[in-house]
Amino acid sequence: MTPGKGAERAFRALGDPRSRPNRRWLDGLLGSSDREGTDGLLDELGACLDVEREIRRRHREAGRPTYAQFRAPFELYALVRRLRPEHVVETGVSSGVSSAHFLLALQKNGRGTLHSIDRPTLQRGRRFTARDSPVALPPGRATGWAVPDGLRADWDLRIGPSQRLLPELVRELPTVGLFLHDSLHTAGHLTFELETVRPKLSPGAVVLADNTVWTGRAFPRFARSLEVPVVRRGRTDLVGLRVPEGPEPPARGGGAGRPPSL
Ligand SMILES: C[S@@+](CC[C@H](N)C(=O)[O-])C[C@H]1O[C@@H](n2cnc3c(N)ncnc32)[C@H](O)[C@@H]1O
Fold it and tell me: CB within 8 A of 205, min separation 6: which ones?
């Protein structure tokens, strides 16, 4: 379970105590067929400390020294390196910790695009207070404000509610090799997003959802419909699944239906 030296250095450079990579989760998602390979991919992060330091610097500079809304950025990196997807889709960007790690892995793969959707939540006043959402944009910042400049070139970032933008995006894409839900955490919304991407999920794709403590049975129901297990990251409510490698993911009658209201 202990990550190698490179991953450990990256973890320290990012500075979020929750983000130490959980290899068991990766093994569960990837089928644990190549543990050494996975360790090697995590270890690569030791050569990318400038990215982790830059994310941390940007967080500090915006007055959010301990901010990192996504707890498994290094696993995202390893998944993209291993799966080598053509298209990665995520909903919920905020400062962009997840996005930066997807982008870094795609850059390293030398192929593939990250498509991100975010409807920003704005900080109410000049100072961050207890009344603000922890994901609120600091004044003068835009969605993805912590993503280093060197990673942004091929980033397809779309601003608006996923209720409207996700169906449009999915129509444009031939396949989705990795999907991360990290936007509005309600059961109805998660089901809407999962059912929207379902028809384009490639065989062997990975689907992840964070904060599932708020989304009831939505993710387990989706996993059951695909006849695969839910893979939980430790004792947290960050979960994932692997779409069967077989021909087509089982279709659910009627498609995504109407999105929940905006
Ligand atoms: C938990 S944060 C995302 C954290 C991000 N993945 C990271 O690594 O830092 C959730 C984000 O989703 C946005 N959001 C909330 N509802 C949304 C919706 N309906 N569509 C798109 N984005 C939404 C929030 O404003 C916020 O920026």
Answer: 83, 85, 175, 176, 177, 178, 179, 242, 243
The pick from 75, 77, 155, 182 for probing ligand 1's pocket by mutation, whose C-beta has the most ligand atoms within 8 angstroms, reads 182
Integer Cα distance of 46 and 81 in angstroms: 15
165-204 pLDDT per residue, tens: 999 999 999 999 999 999 999 999 999 999 999 999 999 9
Q: Quote the CA–CA distance of 87 and 171 in Å, as a whole number.
A: 13
Give burial (CB, 10 Å; 0-12/13-18/19+) of 228. Answer: middle
Ligand 1 neighbours, Cβ below 6 Å, are 69-70, 91-95, 97-98, 117-121, 135, 161-163, 182-184
Q: Once rounded to an integer, what is the mean pLDDT over residues 155-159?
A: 98
Terminal alpha carbon distance of the chain: 41
CATH numbers and ranges of domains, the chain = 72-242 (3.40.50.150)
